[in-house]
Design brief:
The complex is a heterodimer of chains A (about 260) and B (about 300). Chain A has about 260 residues and is mostly helical. Chain A has 12 helices and no strands. By secondary structure, chain B is an alpha/beta fold. Chain B is built from 11 helices and 14 strands. In chain B, strands 6-7-8-3-9-10 form a 6-stranded mixed beta sheet, with helices on both faces. In chain B, a hairpin with a 2-residue loop joins strand 1 and strand 2. Chain B starts with a strand and ends with a helix. Classes of the chains: A mainly alpha (about 260), B alpha/beta (about 300). Chains A and B meet through helix 1, helix 5 and helix 12 of A and helix 2, helix 3 and helix 5 of B.
Amino acid sequence: MNWGKVRTVILKEWSDAFRNKMVLFSVIFMPLLFAVLPLIMLYFMGQPSPNEVSGEDLGPFLPYQAYFGLQNPLHVVMVGMASIYTVIFLMAPLILPMMIASDSIVSEKVQKSLEPLLATPIRVSELLLGKALAAIVPAVLATWLAYGLYGALAALFLPGPVVGVILSLDWLVGIGLLSPLMGLFSVNIGILISSRVNDTRAAQQIGGFIALPLMLVFVPMFLGKLALTAEVFLLGALLFLFLDAGVLWLATAIFRRETILTRWK
Amino acid sequence: MIQTQGLTRRFDGRSAVEDLSLEVREGEVFGLLGPNGAGKTTTVRMLTALLSPTSGSAVVAGFRLGKQNMEIRRRVGLLTEAPGLYERLPVQYNLEVFARLYEVPEKEIPGRVEHYLRMLDLWERRRDPAGTLSKGMKQKLAIARALLHEPRVLFLDEPTASLDPEASRMVRDFITDLRKEGRTIVLCTHNLDEADRLCDRIAVLKQRLIRVDTPENLRRALYGRTVCVQLREVRPEHIQVVRALPFVREVMECGPELRVRLEDPEEMNPFLVRALVEAGAEVQFVREEEHTLEQVYLDLVREGKEAGR
């Protein structure tokens, strides 16, 4: 692996993609939206008097009461909702890289730049890794920054127990470790799919179907059946580490220069 | 510099290139001519290690296709039919990216990029996005990109296609300069006049190799040489006299002209003219008929089509 060439591909991808204002806007604006909207909702949720939420209304949020040892029913609901909203930051790297990756493939297609690129002595693995990292790194950085902003604003405007959940070690592990690995998985799957189909839009749609089951993992959490602890996130991170390595290996094994040349045109 | 032996490529059972055996010598400009779908681009893609052959073998710049593809890519430059530039990126950055991918030493990149940009009159536009250049300038930039790593063989696929006459001339002049530097160039073109002017040898393809030779030899092989003698008045006895000459292969009357096919006009024309004058003909002009490469090409492709039936 020639890391200099991987770096060249990454820097080229960024220079090219971020000149597209739509991509730049999406990568900056979407995470900001993720950071601010839940806070607004949580802030207004905290406005009614504690009497308006009773212990009987807790329903699916009951496990949060026990897990975090909270007395105030409103705080229990807010903590439950904050946990659900924070999942967005786990999911963001599944969505955001698609903006860069699809722009990268579409622009190569429009500019007919793949053939000269593939005529250079770059290995297919270097090209694919460069494209995958170029898509995932800004998405992860944007997610982390947005999560930082979300945490900072929460500390300013939300009650202590809610801030404690948002900035808990559990979520730091989840967003710091699991979310980039999940994002890398989604990008590699996208690349793998694009080797099998002729149409970039078809690749994106199939990629969406692949990302969907990943989101289903969180359904037990929404139903109060699964607490997302640091251990769960670590286990998930380990699983995705193996999955990422496997998918990257598979993508490199399946991809040939002529596959890219004839499929990505 | 390039040798191919039985090179064949099929797509889903359909043959794009069939049993192609040819040799390109060092320092020559070698033309690949053929109608659309004749396999020119597929041949170039195989020889630049972009497509693998279904069967057959090739050696490019001393390296075996299939086994030493990376070495081949390091030593060949490719100008694709479309320039394929990163249109949003500056002109200079387009070249820098490819210089790095072609493994040009980092400290040599600025100098080399500047050299080619100045050589091609693009230095003043170096900070502009490549998409803002004219078609001719884009093509020159794409040629510069193919030359950055000083390749031993340069493949040019339709370098003047879709360019206006001025831009085409600009690109042709540049190819002439490269030829003077002694580079080996493989040129795919539809422009027969361009092939005639630039190429040392030409291969006519239609899936298979139909013929390969110099443009001049291709003309001679197909038509021999024809001398046109214009007379004040053509009479039947003039035709009979010429037909009786032992070195004449064929005589045709074309208005005031006699078209005479013979082997060696430089040696035989004086005898031909003398015979006509002695027969009472008044000779006004004598010239050799030029067969255009277009005629040669069309006849060869037709011949190939008939042979393929």
